[in-house]
């Protein structure tokens, strides 16, 4: 049984990727070890099966243009990632205004809720006049201090 490192060296020997000294050592190993010979034969048969049955794909454009498109797309994605990682100096104001707006809305809400009932939100007194284009119109107003409200009745005398 051979180890994984020896299998990798056998594969490199088969592909012609070993330097001369290591190639000589693998040749010697193949001459004396039956397990190494079986592994080498399996690698050779697998290589020949893959080479003979590989589906050939045709590119719609030249290989240089195809790979340049891929390179440009990778560069574009990398530049977008760099832009997203850099803090934008003009983007600080929404992060400031959102909490400030919420705080202002809360202050208005608290001011409305905590106001005294004697202070009406809209006070109408007798000095207010109602203008209407109808000639035969009359109005009557009633102010209740206990209920803190004013009721105005407008009658147009129409039948």
Largest sheet: 2 strands, antiparallel
Order of neighbouring strands in the sheet with most strands: 1-2
Low-confidence stretches: none
Structural class: mainly alpha
Strand fraction? 5-15%
The level of helicity is 55-70%
The coarse overall form would be rod-shaped
Distance separating the two termini: 114 Å
Q: What's the helix count?
A: 5
Q: What's this, in brief?
A:
With 159 residues, the protein is mostly helical. The chain contains five helices and two strands, in the order αααααββ.
Q: What is the secondary structure topology, with strand pairs?
A:
Elements: H1 4-15, H2 20-32, H3 34-53, H4 63-85, H5 92-113, E1 138-144, E2 149-155
Antiparallel strand pairs: 1-2
Structural overview:
By secondary structure, this protein is mainly alpha-helical. The chain has 5 helices and 2 strands. It has helices at about 5-15, 20-30, 35-55, 65-85, 90-115; strands at about 140-145, 150-155. The protein has a two-stranded antiparallel sheet with strand order 1-2. It is rod-shaped.
